[in-house]
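Why do we care about 3D structure at all? Because function follows from shape, and shape follows, mostly, from sequence. That is the central idea of this module. The next example makes it concrete: a single protein chain, its amino acid sequence, and then its structure expressed as tokens.
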Amino acid sequence: METKFDSIKKEVAKVVVGQEKMIDSLLIAFFCEGHILIEGVPGLAKTTTVNALAKALGLSFKRAQFTPDLLPADILGAEIYDPKNNTFKIKKGPIFTNLLLADEINRAPAKVQSALLEVMQEKQVTLGDTTFKIEKPFFVMATQNPVEQEGVYQLPEAQLDRFMLKLVVSYNSKEEELEIARRISSGNFEEIRPVITKEEIEEIKEQIKAVHIDPEVEEYMIELVNATRYPSQYGLEEIEHFIQFGASPRVSIDMFKAVKAMAYLRKKEFVTPVDVAYLANEIMRHRIVLTYEAEAEGITTDEIIQKVLEAVEIP
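And the structure:
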């Protein structure tokens, strides 16, 4: 039986070829009321995917291109003086939407990054003396380009922690790229139509919360997180000197939420360790701080997570 998830994915597939993990991750973060950070070289359909998702969900969508000269007011909005009426009026920024694409978030200075991250956390914006609640659902997809290293402002670890998932997007396969080139050169794209209402979105969120997790699987997830903090307790002495700080408590919270959504996406009523392993990298890769030694040896957080997955006993 086709679920609402299937219908949404079918609509997005009208304009996006492949990139299934990106679409799944976007849906998981959206329905868990989290936010997602996507890293990938230009041209991998990041903007197209989130735009298509907004249309399929029937929600408003705005895009903000982050640049070094951006100010917080350019994202949040500002009070503007109206000389005709001798009053100040509020001009709302692009943050007032359901789905916001923060393109190349690492190109904007810290003030702008923190302004956005505050709204992501608090779900409200203060302009002048007035505080505005951000209308639900509210979902931020931020992208960062790993190619450019000059003129970029790396997100601090505490701010990265606000993102539920960090996805690293790779190139399409040769077959998918051929299909993309054919579609674009012929202009052969179908129109995306909304396939879900806001009420149904809220219903799905409640159904995801009701997905069952066995106590053994719950303990397994906590053990995975703990193994990044105290590797030697799990026989991982060889990676201990590579980890400066292990995964934060937010990882456990987000993991419990995300694996339920993963199981729901796969039409299951309960979570299995496979769901946990499938999402472990996306949930933890941006929340483990490595030492200089690890960076000098070219060790990545993904390799650390893989070692942890191999060491912790599966229930």
